[in-house]
Write a structure and sequence with these properties.
The protein has about 130 residues and is mainly beta. About 0% of the residues lie in helices and about 45% in strands. The strands form three sheets. Strands 2, 4, 5, 6, 9, 12 and 13 form a seven-stranded mixed sheet that branches. A four-stranded antiparallel sheet has the order 1-3-8-7, with no helix packed on it.
Length: about 130
């Protein structure tokens, strides 16, 4: 199911930055749960960051302090990536749900995968 569209992926050197965008969401920023995922060759899909309707966020340990997920009033989703590392290389996908995030200990779940809207991905390649 392809209902969202990612953009902003590119090839950069380690230490560089990129900002990914996700458009096409019909979900309210107030009520929706949105997330970024990534998958590298040979690896399983990994939840990178999640943002709830109230702005609460959660991040994979590997990207904490470097990535920032956000969304705006026009229902667009963003992922700002700083200090990129080769291990960040992957296809990045955005996903959204019409309801707020499932919470685990008060934080948006990093294991929920039942999002109802997905994009086809944008490639991020980080070289040394």
């Amino acid at each position: 199911q392809v209902q969202l569209a990612e953009s902003g992926g590119s090839s950069v050197q380690a230490g560089g930055s990129l900002k990914l965008s996700c458009t096409g969401s019909k979900f309210s920023a107030i009520s929706s749960c949105m997330a970024w995922f990534r998958r590298a060759p040979g690896n399983e899909r990994e939840t990178v960051a999640v943002i709830d309707s109230d702005g609460s966020t959660n991040y994979a340990d590997s990207v904490k302090g470097r990535f920032t997920i956000s969304k705006d009033s026009t229902r667009n989703l963003y992922l700002e990536m700083n200090d990129l590392k080769p291990e960040d290389s992957a296809m990045y996908y955005c996903a959204g749900d019409r309801w707020r995030c499932t919470l685990i200990n008060g934080s948006p779940s990093m294991v929920y995968v039942g999002y109802t809207a997905w994009g086809q991905g944008t490639q991020v390649t980080v070289s040394s």
